[in-house]
Amino acid sequence: MPLNVTPPPGSLFHLFHRQGEEYVAYSWQNLDVILWLGSATGPGARSLNQLTRTRMREGRKYSAIHTVLAGAGLPDEEGRKELNLQAERSTKSLGCLVAVIERQGFAGSAIRAFVSGVFALTAQEAVRRVVASMEDAAAWLPEAHARTTGVRLDPTELRGVLLGIRALVP
């Protein structure tokens, strides 16, 4: 049965892009939320790079939350290269980069180690954080986002948006 990832009518956020069963990207204000349904591949990460370039052309700082769902694993070799390239390219436009790692155990530790390596490639100006849940991301992001992008996110609204997005994918 295909996964329906379309937000309900009246949602504050919108579906930005879907890359098959690999990831789904949503947008709200100057915040992108990417849900990794599966492991990143070269073609999938390249499509995300195109979305990032689109965001960068807007000329304003934005933040991104990458959520690695429990069923997703490490990227393949080509996917790793593309994600590292994205991290290097987006440094001037990125205010905050948050990784939500829902995966537990050894696989979760391996994903956290990979994310730490990607974070090392992003600009020092970009504020980075690894958390365990969307709730954690919602609690941490508003202050850092306002400081780095100049855009204030209402904490209650942000929490509702993030939990609404997360609820679309069981």
Structure overview:
The chain has 170 residues and is of the alpha/beta class. Helix content is 44%, strand content 22%. It has five helices and six strands. Strand 1 and strand 2 form a beta hairpin. Helix 2 packs parallel to helix 3. The radius of gyration is 15 Å and the shape is globular.
Largest sheet: 6 strands, mixed
Mean pLDDT comes to 88
**What's the CATH architecture?**
2-Layer Sandwich
Low-confidence stretches: none
What is the strand tally?
6
Shape: globular
Q: What fraction of the residues are assigned to beta strands by DSSP? A: 15-25%
* Text of the CATH class: Alpha Beta
Q: What structural class is derived from the secondary structure elements? A: alpha/beta
What count of helical segments does DSSP give? 5
What proportion of the residues is helical, as a percent range?
A: 40-55%
Distance between the termini: 13 Å
Query: Element order, helices and strands?
Result: EEEHEHEHEHH
CATH superfamily: STAS domain
Radius of gyration, whole Å: 15 Å
Short overview:
By secondary structure, this protein is of the alpha/beta class.
Task: Give keywords.
Transcription Regulator spoIIAA; 44% helix; 6 strands; 170 residues; alpha/beta; 6-stranded mixed beta sheet; globular
Q: In terms of topology, how is this protein built?
A:
Elements lengths: L13 E6 L3 E6 L2 E6 L5 H16 L4 E7 L8 H13 L4 E8 L3 H17 L5 E5 L2 H16 L5 H13 L3
Parallel strand pairs: 3-4, 4-5, 5-6
Antiparallel strand pairs: 1-2, 2-3
